[in-house]
Amino acid sequence: MKRSPWYWIPTVYIAEGLPYFAVNTLTVLMYNNMGVSKSEMAFFTGWLYLPWVIKPFWSPFVDLIRTKRWWTLTMQCLIAVCMAMVAFLLPTSFYFASTLVVFWLMAFCSATHDIAADGYYMLELDERQQAAYVGVRSTFYRFASLMGQGGLVILAGLLEESLGEVSRAWSMTFLILSLFFGLIFIYHLRFMPRSSDDQPHLCESVSNIVRGFGETFVTFFRKRNIRWALVFMLLYRLPEALCIKLVQPFLVDNTAMGGLGLTTAQVGFVNGTIGVIALLIGGIVGGLVVARGGLKRWLWPMAMSLALPCIVYCYLAMSPTDNMFVICSLLGIEQLGYGFGFTAFMLYLMYFSRGVSQTSHYAFCTAFMAFGMMIPGMFAGHIYEWIGGYVGFFWIVMISCVFTIIATGGIYRTLNSDVK
User: Fold this and answer.
1) Which pLDDT score is estimated for 417?
2) Long-range contact list for 195-202, CB < 8 A, 24+ apart?
3) Domains and CATH numbers, the chain
4) pTM reported for the whole predicted model
């Protein structure tokens, strides 16, 4: 009897989301709390985006070697091992360099897991089921976001307070995460079905795959309006890319350093509950208004909503407060604006990818999206130290909204008025 997708879809997409947030969110707060400088933290954690940038280049080989189920399970096992390695390395004197190496391996495994899990989803389910369960996979990926940015941060914060030692607190957090991920791996060994369609493409040679990839790559850069599309992919989210590495340090740094002085647990609550809920509402509202009025009609309001985070952080940096109601309200507004504005970005990527090789072209788009987040984030810490504090830094982020406006103006005229 064929097993219901409910047995494995929720856990597979929790497993897809958790390592991403562990690598790209937890590392920022953890290294900051452990005393790593802003410039080093931002630069080296920025490199952790790289596997998601380059994953389209090795995704064809996941089809060639073994099955999607094998890749999914193997990557889950390796991710659990990497998390355990982080837990054991954090208390050492050489924790920074050693854990960065392990996090990069974890990022590589996570990006490969994304390729295999999404491929398995499409093979195991027919088109009707794929459409029916797309909301389920999205919901549980968001649940992973809630766990990664909220629950795990709150846990680390509580452990920091009870143990009185930051390294031990984060070590225990990653050990618990490793055990949880190991249980997910064991569960999937039993409950992920073996699809008859899930077979390696042995008839394909490496040379044919490379040739086909090259042709797809060339056709992507021959698409109409490619120049403005690339500008949009790389610059539309520039303010966010600059902010993302310093927002959490800003929240936890004490007032003498220009921060808000929140505890790690409070940051987990604000980001993981208020922030995630507001982000989801913004995204849902964005999808609804575009469905009714079209992307071209709502592109500019959505682009302007990306300035909300900049305004919020400039205000908080200039007028710091310890009032949690005010902080939660402002950060909720910030995430609401970001969720609303991000909708336009993702819809444009889908619009631009239409046509021949749509799936591959969309993968290239997401790679450029990751690259656009990676590079500015790497240098955000240097900008913070050069400008001398959070107030100047967030004003630079505000000024960078000009690039969002330029990118939006460039692709606005390329859209049809009825684009959904």
Assistant:
1) 47
2) 195/68, 195/69, 195/120, 195/123, 195/124, 197/123, 197/124, 198/67, 198/68, 198/69, 198/120, 198/123, 198/124, 199/67, 200/63, 200/64, 200/65, 200/66, 200/67, 201/63, 201/64, 202/64
3) 1-192 (1.20.1250.20), 224-420 (1.20.1250.20)
4) 0.85
